[in-house]
Amino acid sequence: MKTLSALASYRRASVDRIRQALDADSSSYLIKGPRGCGADELLGAMALALVGACGGCGVCSSCVAVADGEHPDVLFAQGERGKLVPVEELRRLVRFASLAPTQAAHRVVIIPDIDTLRLSFPVILKALEEPPTATRWLLSAALIGAELAPVASRCFVIEIEAPSMAEIEGRFDEVQLEPTEQLVRWTRRRLDRVALFARLTDAERYLSGFANLPDLVREDARWSLELVYRLTPRDLATTAEAEEVLQCGLEILIAAHPENADWLRRASRASLSLARHLPIQLVLAELILREG
Predict the structure, then answer these.
(1) Which residues cross the membrane (predicted)?
(2) How far apart are CA 4 and CA 19, in angstroms?
């Protein structure tokens, strides 16, 4: 888990805003920035700063416990990325937030991507309105729409920018993946995709399959099945990761063929199917097979 000081080497302006917000001593903070901007890391660094007497050094026993998910006063929302956090999990967070800290000065609750929860906002709204003195809520969102506005109005909102290309390339070095021109471009300045690409076997070759897809598809049922197999993501730990890498592939497909209305329709339809969490191979099949 990175500290605010470590993150400041790439994101000085964002870290300065976070430190100013922490000095304001609010009960709730909401980081707002583009999807994949590293908000999870920033929330974790804020938790280190709030819980450790050291101010978030990253190496003391308190900071190590936070990083390992074992600190009794820090709770991260549990849920598969890209899918809704269950309502019962939110209720667990609210119960946790209502208790006094046992070791640290603050009890910290962390919910990334809160804008994806939608109808679950009321579960935590009252907890944000009347938090115990020592409780700190740390949230992040890519967008603050009308549904999220009541939550945002009760938080200290911190605007952060997308990662720089230097930071993206630095993250490739961290995961020991060659930052080729194509892979760097395909991240679309999203830090989470760097780690995702690192978990794919030959990421550039796999993702190039989407860029070349219109030339690969042909009217052959056996070949279509082979193509679905080739494009099914491998080596990923969760379904959500597979959905994310496939979404990235659809973006690559559209960018490589911007004037092709047929493939734009196909990719858009597949993206909607991903949003509904249909099986990956079914999404690929409807992408490859001709409509009608």
Answers:
(1) none
(2) 8
Q: Residue 121: what residue type?
A: F
Q: Where are the domains of the chain?
A: 4-159, 199-288
Rounded CA separation 244/136 (Å): 30
Find out if CATH 1.20.1290.10 is the number for domain 4-159.
no
Whole-angstrom Cα distance, residue 23 to residue 41?
A: 19
Instruction: Give this prediction's pTM.
Output: 0.86
Helix axes 239-256, 261-275, angle to 10 degrees: 160
Report helix, strand or coil for 204.
helix
State the distance between the two ends of the chain, measured CA to CA, in whole angstroms: 50
Q: What would the 3-class secondary structure string for 135-177 be? A: EEEEEEECCCCCCCHHHHCCCEEEECCCCCHHHHHHHHHHCCC
Residue pair 66/54 in contact (Cβ under 8 Å)? The answer is: no
User: How far, in whole angstroms, is CA 274 from its chain's centroid?
Assistant: 16
